[in-house]
Amino acid sequence: MMYKIALLLLLAATRVSAQAPVQRQSMDDAWWTGPMLANSASTLPKGHYLIEPYLYDVQSNGAFDRDGRRHSTGRSHGYGSLTYMTYGVTDAFSLSLIPTFGYNDPAQGPGSSGIGMGDLAVHAQYRLTQFEPGHWLPTLSVALQQTFPTGKHDRLGGRASDGLGSGARSTMLGVYSQTYLWMPNGRILRMRLNLTKTFSGDANLADASVYGTDDGFRGTARPGDTFVANAAWEYSITRNWVVALDAVYRRTGNTRVRGVDAAGSVTLFDSGSSRSFALAPAIEYNFNANVGVLFGVRAVVAGRNTSSHITPAIAVNIVR
Q: Which segment of the chain is annotated as a signal peptide (predicted)?
């Protein structure tokens, strides 16, 4: 349904533009909320702030095995929220606080005992260059994100669905880019490319955990490093309406679990590396230059040793 709506809006905009003389759209005439996944390479002006809450439902109905074949495992839901709270410290430097909350409803077993807090991230971004019309240089930024293990990850008892965190500190390093192209009909296509690498420390584990350990276990887990390449496109149909698409490649290294189980036996577990490719089409509606909403769906369409899921989401973007 999301694909059909986006296509109809795009065809309507193309038909209108074909009937009128081509006029180059000004950047001030284009209002944006942002695609579903790719962060902006721009930073906020000094003293300004952005608040962007997301609500989503991770619907997992299977998994890709190590040969890339998909198997059904029953449908589960991971309801969650993620909120970007960003402040412009200087024109070129922004700081963000990103809290997360969630509730799990697995295909088998009890759901979460209540809404719980996930891991908390602090994101810093410094802009190196700024795009200017008529020039080839895009907006470029470097980013550093530190995630703290505030979500519950072990001592889960018989309710594994209460696990909403990783238990490990992680550090993300990223490079963000953003540029603008004018299409033959004069409308703007905004493009982003984000490259990130995340490194994790050890998570201390006791009893049942999100890493599949059981009661009586004592040990550690080391999540694998993760590389993500996220390309995104946004097409300005009108001042208010925008269609967007993210294409995301993710590779995660082997996660190691080491420890002793309740019987005193040494436990060694390796998850193996995983890969996935996801698409996230979205529609944006902007009430004005400062407030917009986004409706999108992320779908993992291919992968190896990873879950298969569809995630509908809604977000509100407010800039002041």
A: 1-20
Q: Return d(Cα 307, Cα 65) in angstroms, integer.
A: 9
* Residues 6+ positions from 24 with CB-CB distance below 8 Å: 182, 186
User: What SS3 class is residue 3?
Assistant: helix
Distance CA 187, CA 184 (A): 8
Q: And the tokens for 244? A: 């967007």
The tokens for 59 are 């619907």
pLDDT digit string (tens) for 117-157? 999 999 999 999 999 988 889 999 999 999 999 999 999 99
Architecture of domain 2-319: Beta Barrel (2.40)
Q: How far is CA 147 from CA 56, 150, 151, 187, 307, in A?
A: 20, 9, 11, 38, 23
Domain spans, the chain: 2-319
DSSP strands (E only) in the chain: 49-64, 70-71, 76-90, 93-98, 100-105, 116-117, 120-129, 139-148, 170-182, 188-200, 203-206, 218-222, 226-236, 241-252, 256-260, 266-270, 274-286, 291-304, 306-319
pLDDT tens sequence across 173-230? 999 999 999 999 999 999 999 999 999 999 999 999 999 999 999 999 999 999 999 9
Name the 3-class secondary structure at 35: coil
Q: How far, CA to CA in Å, does 123 sit from each of 39, 60, 282?
A: 11, 28, 24
Q: Report the C-alpha gap between 118 and 100 in whole angstroms.
A: 5
- Dihedrals φ, ψ of 265, to 5°? -85, 140
How buried is 133 (Cβ within 10 angstroms: 0-12 exposed, 13-18 middle, 19+ buried)? exposed
CA distance linking residue 176 with residue 242, whole number of Å = 21
